[in-house]
Design goal:
Shape: globular
Number of domains: 2
Strand order of the largest sheet: 1-2
Structural class: mainly alpha
Distance between the termini: 73 Å
Helix content: over 70%
């Protein structure tokens, strides 16, 4: 009798699936779930697996030939006792400090200038300043290498035209780092300016109108209204710039200065792992870079806890 009528399903189930699960499943898109799974797999293959592999390698001694051998913290101990490592750290700090200070400062000036423009003129200047951001890094590097040529380069031709002596630029241990820094500022200032411009545009015009009625000058408006209200955007740009400068690799690899004058932490880790075939030592350097950026980012976000408030 029970078999002829079919099994009685428990209350709250539909086709053997609990009703709350069935209702939840109807709220999801199969296409969306597929994209989510694909992105998760992509990040697992490209980021998560290499990250944990780097952690494992940092405790190994491996040169691609012999079997990896566990050495504990020997790679880190060797790293912190290496003069070359601390020179790379110091070069990175110098480069990052100058690049962020000059780059963010110029981006803020450009954003203020563009915010005063209207219509097509504003769009034209935004496109011009943003153009280096979408130019391939290799193209930018070889363009600037040509500009920096000791003989026949554009910059030296300009110096000679105004009666100044030629400069070695990339051939000088004193000038090479700052030559690369100038190129990187040129590459990134447009993107930072667009971000800061968006923050300035989001400030209500009524605040500026009220300040003008009260007789506030340009600098009063700038320091009392503009800077305080774009602080979240400004801090975001500084945090992103810190991460980007420490991780910067391509320009230093493609346009190196003499000796180790332009060797920052990222090229240093690459040289250890792929040129000297000391993969464990290179992985330890990469882990140090990650931890340094992690603590720097946490410190900045906690130090400047800013929220939007008009």
């Amino acid at each position: 009798m029970a078999e002829s009528l079919g099994a009685v399903r428990p209350t709250g189930e539909k086709d053997g699936v609990p009703r709350h699960i069935a209702r939840g499943a109807r709220g999801y898109s199969g296409l969306g779930i597929g994209f989510a799974i694909g992105i998760t797999l992509f990040y697992a293959v490209v980021f998560i697996i290499p990250f944990f592999t780097a952690i494992w390698l940092s405790f190994q001694n491996w040169d691609y030939i012999v079997t990896p051998k566990f050495v504990g913290f020997r790679n880190f101990s060797k790293l912190f006792s290496s003069d070359q490592f601390w020179k790379a750290v110091w070069t990175t700090v110098k480069f990052s400090t100058v690049e962020i200070s000059v780059g963010v400062g110029l981006a803020l000036v450009l954003a203020l200038m563009i915010s005063q423009m209207k219509g097509k003129l504003e769009g034209l200047f935004v496109a011009l300043y943003y153009l280096p951001m979408i130019t391939p890094t290799v193209v930018s590097v070889y363009l600037w290498r040509w500009l920096y040529r000791p003989t026949g380069g554009v910059f030296n031709s300009i110096l000679l035209a105004v009666g100044l002596p030629e400069q070695p630029f990339l051939a000088s241990t004193q000038q090479a780092l700052w030559c690369v820094t100038a190129m990187i500022v040129w590459m990134n200032v447009g993107g930072a300016a667009v971000i800061l411009l968006a923050g300035i545009k989001d400030i209500p015009q009524s605040l500026y109108d009220a300040a003008k009625i009260d007789g506030a000058g340009f600098w009063q408006v700038f320091f009392r209204i503009t800077i305080p209200l774009i602080q979240p955007v400004l801090i975001y740009q500084i945090v992103v710039s810190v991460i980007g400068t420490v991780q910067m690799f391509d320009p230093f690899f493609l346009m190196p200065g003499p000796g180790n004058s332009t060797r920052t932490l990222a090229p240093y880790a690459y040289q250890l792992g792929f040129q000297t075939l000391n993969l464990g030592f290179g992985a330890a350097t990469s882990i140090f870079i990650f931890l340094m950026l992690l603590f720097a980012t946490i410190f900045q976000l906690q130090r400047w806890q800013i929220t939007w408030e008009y």
